[in-house]
Amino acid sequence: MRVGILGAGGMGNVHATQYAKMPDVEARFFEWDPEKAKAFAERHGAIPTASVDALIAESDVVDVCVPTDLHLDYGLRAIASGRAVFMEKPMARTLEEAARLMEAAAKANVALMPGQVVRYFPEFRKARELVASGAIGVPAAARTRRGGAAPKGSQGWFLDHARSGGVLFDLAIHDFDWLRWTLGEVRSLYARSVGAQRKSGPDYALTTLSFDEGAVAHVEATWMDPSGFRVAFEVCGSEGMIEHDSRNTATVRAHLAHPAEGEGGDPRQAAARKASAEAPLAPTDDPYYGELRAFLDAVNMGAPPPVSPLDGWMAMSISLAALESARTGRMASPARMA
Q1: CB of 242 within 8 A of CB of 131?
Q2: 317 vs 113, 172, 306, CA distance in Å?
Q3: Residue 243, H or E segment
Q4: Pairing state of beta strands 216-222 and 204-211?
Q5: Measured distance CA(57)–CA(45) in Å, rounded
Q6: I want to staple 44 with a disulfide (CB 3.0 to 4.6 A). Which of 8, 16, 144, 278 is the partner?
Q7: In the predicted model, is pLDDT for residue 251 greater than 80?
């Protein structure tokens, strides 16, 4: 399968790393910056193409990894050419744009999947399974925390809230999607954020959500933590509690002997050996691998994508309602598709 990656930035590199593990995938890409394109091709062995149109024409699947406000244009172009589309989250910048992508994909009978990758992280997936099985009884309350230092992106687009939507739209959308997947539809919410009061820069937000089934959740998202990226959650029910904190999770660490700098050893190689020995998971256990592999398998079988466009639309709806609440200081309710 020929997969075309549009954009050689952060997510483009993440996805290319995973495609390189798939023997049945030939990755190609297009990137506007010549230096980034050269580095990307050397790093991943991906095939460069001359233009966006060439990438679409030479691919079976198009993986869109460009800033959110560009998703609609490139998504529609790929869909119009009959290509299946994997769209990094958020699926689009507005609900109207996301609906246009969904309508176009349905009319062209091509697969469209939003990149809600948290569903493929083993801790989040297992927690959802435990809740669904009744292991903690009736769910009552949940808490999530996600974030670290502010990302910048190409030309600082993340910190331009008109383009990225800030932390509520670009980061908290992961937890909003997972909570909806785990606890059901969101009835109403109330949010406060730093970003709602300004148009650029680092951001921090707190959101309280009420669900149709009676549970409540508190979502903390930050681009203002210089101590490093951290993810945590708790889910409490009538019979117990599930908790996870990425900073407390044990892992396998190997400390390998190597020649010291100045004694003929290359410290960069030593660092690479140490880093590669710290992950307890196999390469194919990576959540991004699982997400992309599941999408390609669905395309191959002609099956619906495992994360539907409606899931992406609803996650956006919760994020946009949180932005509205943070801007107005009032409660808001996510839109629901008729």
Answers
A1: yes
A2: 16, 12, 19
A3: strand 240-245
A4: antiparallel
A5: 20
A6: 16
A7: no
116: its two tokens: 């809600």
Q: Which residue has the higher pLDDT, 199 or 118?
A: 118
Phi/psi for 32 (5° steps) reads -75, -35
Between the CA atoms of 171, 177, 183 and 184, what dihedral angle is there, to the nearest 10 degrees? Answer: 140
pLDDT of residue 153: 76
CB of 254 closer than 8 Å to CB of 248: no
Give the DSSP per-residue string, 199-248.
SBS--EEEEEEEETTS-EEEEEEESB-TT--EEEEEEEETTEEEEEETTT
Give the DSSP letter of residue 197: G
Q: Are 44 and 112 in contact (CB under 8 A)?
A: no
Q: How many residues does the chain have?
A: 338
Structural tokens at position 291: 């997400």
Cβ-contact 173, 89 below 8 angstroms = yes
Q: Is 45 left (phi over 0), alpha (psi -120 to 50) or beta?
A: left
Q: What is the mean pLDDT of residues 200-222?
A: 94
Contacts of residue 71, Cβ cutoff 8 Å, sequence gap at least 6: 64, 87, 88, 90, 91, 92, 93, 97, 101
The answer to pTM > 0.85 is yes
Mean pLDDT of 45-61: 97
- DSSP letter string over 137-195? SSEEEEEEEEE-BPP--GGGGGGBHHHH-HHHHHTHHHHHHHHHHHH--EEEEEEEESG
Element (H, E) at 53: helix 52-57
Whole-number percent of the chain with pLDDT over 90: 77
Place of tokens 């609609």: 72
pLDDT band at 248 (very low <50, low <70, confident <90, very high): confident
Domains (range + CATH), the chain: 2-117 (3.40.50.720), 119-249+282-297+308-328 (3.30.360.10)
Q: Which two tokens stand for residue 337?
A: 């598709």
